[in-house]
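hiii so my PI (J.) wants the whole complex modelled not just the main chain, which honestly fair. so below is everything: two entries, each one labled with what it is. i double checked the lines twice but i was tired so who knows lol
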Amino acid sequence: MWNRRKEDEIAPKPVSAPPTSSALAKEGIPMSTLPSRSSNEPHSETRGGSAVLGKSVIVKGQIFSREDLTIDGEVEGTVELQEHRLTVGPNGKVLASIKAREIVVLGTIHGNVETTDKIDIRKEAKLVGDIRTARIVIEDGAYFKGNIDIVRAEAPRPAAVPAPKPQPVASAPAATTPAMAAGAGDHKR
Amino acid sequence: MTLETRHSHGLDQFCASLEERPGLSILDLAGANQATVSFLTNYGHRLYSDDFLHQLDLCFGEGDFYENQTNPLKVAKFLESAVNFPEQHFDGVLVWDTLQFLSAPLLQTVVSRLRAAMRPGACLLAFFHAEERVDTIPTYSYRISDHRQINLAARGQRRPAQFFNNRSLEKLFQDFESVKFFLTRDHLREVIVRR
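here's the output for the full assembly
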């Protein structure tokens, strides 16, 4: 957003190489590529494999994933999932710029996010940063601060009547008419 | 969550000021909600969203709310976190009823900053309660249903810093090009000011 300097401070720090699974195992980090079976997992439906960063995991650096990823720990740096879904769990704290097909936020994100499909900000979630996405869902109770930029494949064609429900579909303003003002004053300088 | 619905001539005027031009930058200080996000982005606008009351509570909430607004350190932190925008960036600003909860010196600073963040010709929509015989006034989360209708989600009661009449509002927005009032039947002044 406006404080670019702060974003610079959280810019990804280059890492020499991604940690191997054996190295992670030595450090006892609960990282798994097995499908999560926890009853607390926010999304049970996954396409293919799903990786999970548990709530005691702290990662500083770059994360690239070719499968869905759930972060319930802390991540600082960048997160890129290409054509996959990122879920930031209720305990997750992500201080990073994020690119993914879809993002579901139940925890905290500080950083700019970009999705090719959808971002879903659930209640109790906190997101501070700019959003660039095709679709967005914000639940009541979520906190968001930043820009929302909806990216569509085609320019929106105005429709005759605005959509009655707050769904991210194209609509257009109707003609203006006087409202139910009991009294009005106009002062020009 | 129970929602009240009200018609808003001010919102109607605000939407008319956007003139169906897509790709405008709109500032909304009501806190992000699905209805407003969908309404504005469906027109192709870019939305900057923040919850101004949440920011006020974060900076001034502990202790005396209005006494804290005279603390230079707290004020500086608030201005940095909540009213720190690029100059001439926004084509429209929705502050709703939030300005009522700023003490006089801070209010003038915030209005000046908002004006600086608006492009020439841009409009700002603000609400002020006109009923002076009350200690507290209801606060809401404002959700745009359509260009003249708002859904209001109650956020409790708050004591306003001061009450405004037309003259005090003219003085508050004296640096703007024009000020337009709509006094509604439920003692709410809807104000449209144009930079």
